[in-house]
Amino acid sequence: MSELRASTAIAWLAVGITAMLAAVAALVASEGVGHLEQLGHWRWVIAGAGYGTVGVGSFLTLRRGARWSLRARVFSLALQCVAALVDESLYYVLAVQLPFVLPARWALRWLLAQVLLSVSAFLTLVFFYGQWRASPLSPWAVFTIVGGVEIGWQSFAFFVGRIAHVADMRREELEQMQSLVAERSRLEERLAIARDLHDVLGHHLAALSVNLDLAQRRDPDGPAAAVIGDARVIAASLLSDVRGVVGSMRESPRTTLAAELAELTAATRGIVLHQAIEAEPVTPHAHALARCVREALTNSVRHGGARSSQLRVWRDAAGVVATLRDDGPGADAVVEGNGLTGMRERVEELGGTLELRAGPGFPITIRFPEHA
Length: 372
Known about the structure:
Structural class: alpha+beta
Strand content: 5-15%
Distance between the termini: 43 Å
Shape: elongated
Order of helices and strands: HHHHHHHHEHEEHEE
Strand order of the largest sheet: 1-2-3-5-4
Helix content: 55-70%
Low-confidence stretches: 18-36
Largest sheet: 5 strands, mixed
Number of helices: 10
């Protein structure tokens, strides 16, 4: 089962469980008044501060290209979590944010802690004001129902956010794949045109040159000899031009690393790439390096929850060196999936080396020899 389908199934399961508990939870809630109403007019000030904190925090942590470190984003979530004590419904807003802001395993842990905090805060106020005594249910029944409702709705909100986040990543991957397919189609079209020029026009020009040469040899002193000679020179020149055009069309277009990265950053969302390009690799190396950077940025957003990455490219005695490091927590161990394996194959195909290290930032080092 795909991640998107699994998230959808869990979200609807959470809704189903919550719906069964909703009727009983309404009975518990109807027996007393909310804890904010005990505070008089101050409840509006507190509520405004709580909603304002969650609103501003949501904007800052979710806006595109936000240059926030993981620590700053966690602090923002924690501040919103405290503000949500004003109204338990704000925890659902926080639950939706989690998949966008934190790596998957961190987001699940945060959701669990958030559910425990919201349930504890609610039950503390309920038992403090003695509202449970007016209910026909026992304290353990109240705890079970409230806990089930909070787990159900917050899980639903979390997996709805997860669905949206996964769909957004899949859409971005599709756009990148479409870009690669379009680029490959252009190259194949160039090769097809080059073959047609060589096979058709080149063949006829070569035949024309041979016939003109024969005509000039048969009547070297005739009245048309000079004209035939000029035509022969023109045909040879055209044939040379056609061969030059065919050769240039069969070559890979010259590109620079800066141009490749500019196109890459324009199509990448959710992370900012800081560049320090001190050396320009040759075209094959620049193309391969840009593809590796694209894969690394995708992994940084998907698995590391990073919001920025630092790329440095320089030249040493052995060749060109590129290092890439993000602001995420990294990984405890290096596990090469399809993406990292593809990066290694792409680099080694050109005689280079790829070094991956575990730890904060998941540092990547790519080396290409001086001569391709």
